[in-house]
Amino acid sequence: MKMRGYVLRKLGQTVLTIFVVLVFNFFLFRIMPGNPVRILIRNPKISAEALQRITEQFGLNQSKFVQFGYYLRDLFTGDLGHSFVYRKPVLDVIMEKLPPTLLLTGTATILSIIIGVILGVIFAWKRGSKLDVAGLSLSLVLYSMPSFWVGILMVMLFAVYWPIFPIGGMSVPGTYYATIWSQLGSLLRHMLLPTVTFALILIGEYVLIMRNSLLEVMSEDYMLTARAKGVSNRNLLRRHALPNAMLPMVTLIAMNLGFIVGGAIQVETVFSWPGLGRLMYTALMGRDYPLLQGIFLFVTVCVVGANFCADLLYRYLDPRVKS
Amino acid sequence: MLQTQTRKDRFTLLKKNLSTFWGVYRENTMGIAGLVILLFFALMALVGPHLVTYTGEIEGAEMVLQPPSAAHWLGTDDLGRDVFAGVVVGSRISLLVGLAATVISMVIGAIIGIAAGYYGKTVDTILMRFTDIFLVIPWLPLMLVMAALLGPSLGNIIFVIGITGWAGTARIIRSQTLSIKERPYVERARAIGSGDLHIMVHHILPNVFPLIFANTILVAAVAILSETTLSFLGMGDPTRMSWGMMLHFAFEMGAVSFGAWWWLIPPGVCVVLVVLGFTFIGYALDEVLNPKLRRR
After folding, report:
1. What is the Cα–Cα distance from B83 to A144, expressed in whole angstroms?
2. Which residues is B58 bridged to in the sheet?
3. Which B residues 194-233 touch A at CB under 8 Å?
4. Domain span at B276
5. Which value does ipTM take for this structure?
6. Residues B163-216: tens digit of each pLDDT
7. Do A262 and B136 touch (CB under 8 A)?
8. For a tag site, which of A10, A117, A233, B101 has the least CB within 10 Å?
9. Is B121 inside any structural domain?
10. Is residue B57 scored above 80 in pLDDT?
11. Contact B129/A160, CB-based, under 8 Å?
């Protein structure tokens, strides 16, 4: 009952957010002076048929309101326009590049959460020790580094000066693999450096949040009660402290999605990883506006949707929020 | 007469407050370290460009991509330009963009935060929904799309970073405003007939100001990082060299596979130091301004 109201309210907010993004995007790409569509039709080399097609597609001879209608119609039928560079529908290009990005960001996120939680627990448990101070300083320094620069340092160290890993890409171009295992091995070798870089970028925040969250939980009264009951240190941590301290992590992972997207653009660019992030960079460099707009919309809708799911999950996991 | 008297009193009070503040602040090692780092870079940005000669001229084929030497302390880039001079000249643009964008963010954040907190109800709901939308949209794609469409210029990059970075500040200032507007002196001001604008500017703003200031420091760190990232991804002004722009050219020209560390490391180290400097000061201010955290 109450849950349904909550879900509906959150859903309403999510839909509103997506709508605002759509309007903003329409304004940016269609209405603003010097917008790409206008540049497109002002091209003197454009043929009469192409001009006709563009005018019809965008409804350029009609009111702004009707144009917005055309824009929404195209979006909901999955028509994000044609990429200038790839000469293919934008959605096809995006779907093609999505799996490598999911592979890279997924692996790095899971890796950084596991290591971040473990380190956070250790630092919180040994609060104030040299290890804690060193860990915190390192997290701070990592947090201050531009993500792409971490990537550049990693490539220089482990692919140029000490060439144990390939310099970039996802596979060696033009190679045929005899077995699936050798192909998988090659993929792993290509994946390791970008994944480690990505995990390094993400880990600092997870460590800090986990440490602070655990410290907060450990000062709660029920921890004292458990200790008084004679619960062992190990069980105290595992059964009483950790489940509660993990809760803020759920929100953080969702809130961090925007940061992960930003990281993907930078890491993929540095490592020539053939995913969505690098696609965005090439779209920027080639001024491929339909593709740029498509990626922006796709990524934003995904992030907003994921935040919605995280809100629901958090409420399900933490009974205290329900009251 | 009375007016000058109070003004003088105010000045003495301000001086007293500042010296107490400094007394606590200078005990903070992290805060002093941050201050020293930032002063160094501020000096570099102000006087540095007058001391080095960064002509951008090609010095001849044999001077291209030279490792560090006595003549070129940090070596040369692909056009034979001195990297050290580039780093010094670049500091000016990097800091300028970072600081200008921060000012924009803080002004928007303060106005929206104070207005939402002070008026409450519908205004609050609308403004906070709007803020949440800005918080949830992935910031880098948003900045890249805007920068790409507006075109690469210094003004545009400042605008783009400033307009995307205010949401967190607005939320913090709103919650502080909510507590301040309940205080007796605001009630009193309203009772003697002060208007909303007067109360917001003369009673609420001075009281949220320490918070705005502490937040500015952290927003500035993010703004400098954003400038570097946007420029690296090719959205900077190619005619105005910044640290991010240097890294962009270095990366595009293949400095990584060439192993030209002297071209890639110095601009990055500068960015990291400046960001660390801001972060240190932010932590120190938090400790000084928030007595709960102050160590005894």
Report:
1. 22
2. none
3. 221, 225, 228-229, 232-233
4. 74-289
5. 0.83
6. 888 888 888 888 888 888 888 887 888 888 778 888 887 778 888 887 888 788
7. no
8. A233
9. yes
10. no
11. no
- The structural domain count of chain B equals 1
pLDDT score at B272:
92
Domain contains B183: yes
pLDDT (tens digit, 9 = 90+) per residue, A42-75?
666 777 777 777 777 666 667 777 777 777 887 7
pTM (2 d.p.) = 0.84
> Could you report the per-residue pLDDT of B34-48, keeping only the tens digit for each?
888 889 888 888 877
Return the C-alpha torsion angle A7, A13, A19, A23, nearest 10. Answer: -170
CA-nearest of B69, B86, B43 to B277 is B43
Taking 60 as the threshold, does the pLDDT of residue A1 lie above it?
A: no
Which of A108, A94, A110 is CA-nearest to residue A302?
Answer: A94
A148/B232 CB distance under 8 A: yes
Q: How far apart are CA B208 and CA A285, in angstroms?
A: 43
Mean pLDDT of A225-253: 80
Q: Are B275 and A144 in contact (CB under 8 A)?
A: yes
Q: Give the whole-angstrom CA distance, residue A11 versus residue A2.
A: 14
Where in chain A are the domains?
3-33+92-322, 35-79
Contact at CB, B261 and A156, closer than 8 angstroms: yes
Of the candidates B234, B256, B264, which has its C-beta nearest A285's C-beta?
B234
Written as one letter, the residue type at B67 is P
Q: Residues of A numbered 4-43 whose beta carbons fall under 8 angstroms of chain B's beta carbons: which are they?
A: 13, 16-17, 20-21, 28-29, 32, 34-36
CB of A150 closer than 8 Å to CB of A200: yes
Mean pLDDT of chain A: 81
Q: What does R_g of chain B's alpha carbons equal in angstroms?
A: 23
CA distance A77 to A70: 11
C-alpha B159/C-alpha B163 separation (Å) is: 6
Count of alpha carbons within 13 angstroms of residue A132, beta-carbon side: 13
> Is pLDDT above 50 for B296?
no
Tokens of A147: 């993500």
The CATH fold of domain A3-33+92-322: MetI-like fold (1.10.3720)
Contacts with B262 (C-beta within 8 Å, 6 or more apart), sequence order: B67, B68, B74, B75, B83
User: How crowded is the C-beta side of A36, counted as CA atoms within 13 Å?
Assistant: 23
Residue B260 lies in a domain: yes
| pLDDT on residue B273 | 92
| DSSP helix/strand/coil, B76 | strand
Residue B225 forms part of a structural domain = yes
CATH number of the domain that B127 lies in? 1.10.3720.10
Contact criterion met (CB < 8 Å) for A300 and B141 = yes
As separate numbers, helices (DSSP H) first and strands (DSSP E) second, chain A gives 15, 0
Is residue B153 pLDDT above 60, yes or no?
yes
Residue of B nearest to A254 (CA): B136
Interface of A with B in 100-159 (CB under 8 A): 140-141, 143-149, 152-153, 155-156
The proportion of chain A whose per-residue pLDDT surpasses 90, expressed as a percent, equals 3
Structure tokens at A193: 């450096």
